[in-house]
Amino acid sequence: MFEEELDDSSVLDVLDKQIVHGLVTDARIPFARLGAILGVSEQTVARRYRSLRSRGMIHVAGQVNTVPLGQPRWVMRITSTPAKAVALAESLARLPELSWVSLLTSGFEIMCAGRTRSIERRDELLLRMIPRASSVVGLTVHEVMRQFPFPEEWPRYDRFFTAEQLRELGPRPPMWEPAGPETQVTLSREDEAMMAILARDGRAPYARLAAATGWSATRVARRMSELVEYGVLYFDLDFALQLMGYTCRAVLWMRVDPARLEEVGKAISEHSEVAYLAAITGPTNLTASLVCRDNAHLYRYVTERLGALPGIRDIEVATALRVFKQSQTLVDAQKLAVLP
Question: How far apart are CA 208 and CA 55, in angstroms?
Answer without folding.
Answer: 24
